[in-house]
Specification:
772 residues, alpha/beta, 8-stranded parallel β-sheet, 26 strands
Length: 772
């Protein structure tokens, strides 16, 4: 099996095609990248910028470059010595435009008689045996349907007609009544849908790849990539939605002849990948959380909790566990209630499972999960604990819960299987997409894959986790920014610096709330952190972010019930940043205060991530400063020519200072090149323990295998403002087993005791390589 040393993620879309990626391989090689890693490339909804809404799994999207583009990328990658990793989407298909999806069109036209009736996950026994589609503005809009050219039309929406279901001149409402589908008002989706979706996205319909022929047809093009030697590995999107993730991975290993596989899997604290997952690891959210917490000051927790309590007007900080229980119940009783009701319909009628209480008990159990899902029989204890926790929370449901437990533990039953598929949906929507926008004391902590109740991580704690990572998952990905992160790495690095500047942060928030008030205290903290973290940013970017954040939080406005008055006040607060000089000045003064420490955090987090155990991924463009916010902001176009020219200048000897964006490019390129060209320097992991008064401010580790002597040594600065206030490094030192050279400055140092101040005189980081 060929495995990557590092990867570089590119967003492939109509404005940046596979041919464009092919033209970039020379730059990626110079940067030090080992594999190019691309977003989904199978044919997706027309105009899709992300590609996760695949409509035809048998072809590479023509608008993304087509099969010719993939061949060009593969050829260019091979010539540059690069591997190719591709993101695939096995859980669902895009169905927003039925004519674009032949599988879905067939299903709508032929109903249960369609070959693809088995491919989609439809409960045909519900809704009168019809597929219910929530596309109308309201149920009354059925009178706005038309029959045009042998199709049913609703404005721009097109639907097929069953054979023999229409005669010329017939009323469209009557024709609609004879179809295998029923068009209904969109608000009915919460309670009355009968097909599985990706989360609560009605236009992404779940498919059943556990059925052999469905798998074969959905993976025919993917299989060709490996037969033809075009691709070397895959990233699997959302495996938690599959009926049998472990079985799917086994089948995929066969399809790819044992190639490198990564799963997009969020691991909660203490959780590990199931032992039967035949893959090399995760896409790195767990690594991101560990790295971030190294740069958060643990002493700030009580202060930020107190600020949170004051802004909430509660007198005490929010109880996070209670919050996420509430947000998960909000999801089970709201946008995913259809999924809960489908589970309830699978519970046999019995005196111990009275119908009115079953759905409530199922929802309560899912809300009590502390991980995304169980993988029965693996994870049985997790399910038992969730039922027990639900019974403690809702003692009136205890008897129903006891009756449900053996049914849920039956992995071979439809109920047991579907329950596992559903719990992850609720976790994602209730926690990542709701609670993470409500729990706002420090935005660094509410990143995808993280548990925000873990406030900070000590150097010793980090070393323990890295030793374990090296032993168990040495080929798992590490990352700091992805297309899914809610704030990019440099935005979070600056927000982390707030933990060292709480004394200035609290009055800054108060002042901003006086001059540009946001009438939702917790949301205001999130907004002002985001603006400070991303500054300078355009008005358009910030407007888009604050509306999305507020609607995701769902406290003062929402996607389904937008509060126009509140959103106008949000917009006014953003506008004040640009239009009110006092607000602009206050923001820029605060950013100027935290920026040097945020810069130190950025460089330190980057070198740690690039050199720690695992396969480091660089998200497109983040070799320069990148202060993006949540999607689509983090998918903006990247100026690669500027980066190419800057790298050439660095290689020609141009000098840079820590505050320059070239410093991040220098660090990234030197770390990637070293990992690729000197793999023997990254064969192990051991802590390097500094001594002296500022020892806690240095994170240092040696990547050499113990039996082979020393390897690459990483040094990075933690809590830089506190370090500065305490007098700097003073006589803190590390012991070097051999003479070394810093890959960033070119400076050499002898074996023995070397002061950290000398090693980090120019940059807050160093990458040392043994000499001789």
């Amino acid at each position: 099996m060929r495995t990557p040393v590092s990867t570089y993620r590119l967003q492939i879309r109509p404005s940046f095609t596979l041919q464009d990626a092919a033209a970039l391989t020379g730059y990626l090689r110079e940067l030090g990248v080992d594999w190019v890693y691309v977003s989904p490339i199978l044919t997706a909804e027309e105009g899709s910028d992300h590609g996760y809404d695949v409509t035809d799994p048998s072809t590479v999207d023509a608008s993304r470059g087509g099969a010719e583009g993939l061949a060009a990328l593969s050829k260019a990658a091979r010539e540059a010595g690069l591997g190719v990793l591709v993101d695939i989407v096995p859980n669902h298909m895009g169905v927003a435009s039925p004519p674009q999806n032949a599988w879905w069109w067939s299903l709508l036209k032929e109903g249960k008689a369609s070959r693809y009736a088995e491919a989609f996950d439809v409960d045909w026994d519900f809704a009168g045996g019809k597929l219910r589609l929530p596309v109308l503005g309201s149920d009354d809009d059925v009178d706005k349907l038309d029959v045009v050219d042998g199709e049913l039309r609703y404005f721009d929406h097109r639907f097929p007609l069953a054979e023999g279901s229409y005669a010329a001149g017939e009323n469209a409402r009557d024709v609609h009544a004879r179809q295998h589908y029923e068009l209904v008002g969109w608000r009915r989706a919460d309670d009355e849908l009968n097909y599985r979706r990706f989360f609560a996205v009605n236009t992404l319909a779940g498919i059943r790849v556990e059925i052999p022929w469905v798998y074969d047809e959905a993976h025919s093009e993917i299989a060709r990539w490996f037969r033809d030697g075009l691709v070397d590995g895959l990233r699997i999107d959302h495996p938690d939605g599959l009926a049998d993730p472990a079985g799917y991975l086994e089948r995929l290993k066969e399809t790819t002849a044992g190639s490198y596989l990564l799963v997009e899997k969020i691991l909660e604290p203490g959780e590990e990948l199931p032992e039967n997952f035949n893959c090399e690891g995760t896409t790195g959210y767990d690594a991101l959380a560990d790295v971030d917490r190294l740069f958060v000051d643990p002493d700030a927790e009580a202060q930020l909790d107190a600020l949170d309590a004051r802004l909430r007007g509660t007198g005490s900080p929010v109880d996070y566990q209670a919050m996420i229980h509430g947000t998960k119940r909000r999801i089970t009783d709201g946008i995913l209630h259809s999924e809960i009701l489908r589970l309830a319909r699978l519970v046999p009628d019995a005196p111990e499972t009275p119908r009115p209480e079953v759905a409530d008990a199922l929802a309560e159990t899912i809300a009590s999960f502390h991980v995304y899902r169980s993988y029965l029989p693996y994870g049985k204890d997790t399910l038992v604990e969730a039922v027990e926790r639900a019974a403690r929370t809702r003692p009136e449901l205890e008897q129903v819960l006891k009756a449900l437990l053996p049914l849920l533990l039956d992995a071979g039953s439809e109920l047991g299987r579907r329950f596992q598929q559903t719990s992850g949906m609720v976790m994602a929507k209730g926690v990542e997409d709701t609670a993470f926008f409500r729990y706002t004391r420090l935005g660094t902590l509410t990143e995808v894959g993280a548990d925000p109740t873990e406030f900070a991580l000590s150097g010793a704690g980090f070393h323990e986790r890295m030793v374990r990572r090296q032993a168990l998952l040495p080929l798992s990905m590490t990352t700091l920014t992805t297309h899914d992160t809610k704030r990019s790495e440099d935005t979070r690095a600056r927000i982390s610096a707030i933990s060292e500047t709480v004394a200035e942060w609290e009055p800054f928030v108060d002042r901003m709330q006086e001059m540009a008030p946001i009438p939702d205290g917790p949301l205001a903290v999130l907004v002002w952190q985001a603006i400070a973290g991303a500054w300078p940013a355009s008005r358009e970017r910030l407007h888009g972010y604050v509306v999305k954040a507020a609607r995701e939080a769902g406290n003062s406005t929402s996607w389904t019930e937008p509060n126009e008055e509140f959103e106008a006040k949000l917009a006014s607060a953003v506008d004040a940043v640009f239009d009110v000089p006092e607000v602009t000045t206050a923001l820029e003064e605060f950013v100027a205060l935290v920026d040097p420490y945020g810069t130190s955090n950025s460089l330190s987090a980057k070198i740690v991530q690039l050199t720690m155990p695992g396969v480091p991924d660089v998200y497109q463009g983040t070799e320069f400063w990148d202060r993006s916010l949540t999607d689509p902001d983090n998918r903006r176009a990247v100026d690669f020519e500027r980066r190419r020219a800057a790298l050439a200048a660095l290689d020609a000897g141009v000098q840079t200072e820590a505050r320059d964006e070239l410093a991040k490019l220098l660090l990234t390129s030197r770390a990637l090149r070293l990992r690729r060209d000197r793999p023997e320097l990254f064969a192990g992991y051991s802590a390097v323990n500094p001594e002296g008064p500022a020892a806690d401010h240095l994170i240092a580790f040696d990547r050499g295998a113990l039996a082979a002597g020393g390897g690459a040594i990483t040094l990075a600065t933690r809590l830089p403002r506190k370090l500065q206030r305490n007098g700097g490094w003073q006589d803190t030192f590390i012991h070097l087993r051999s003479a070394v050279q810093d890959q960033l400055t070119g400076n050499s140092y002898p074996a023995g005791e070397v002061h950290v101040a000398r090693l980090l005189q120019r940059y807050p980081v160093a990458l040392l390589v043994p000499i001789g």
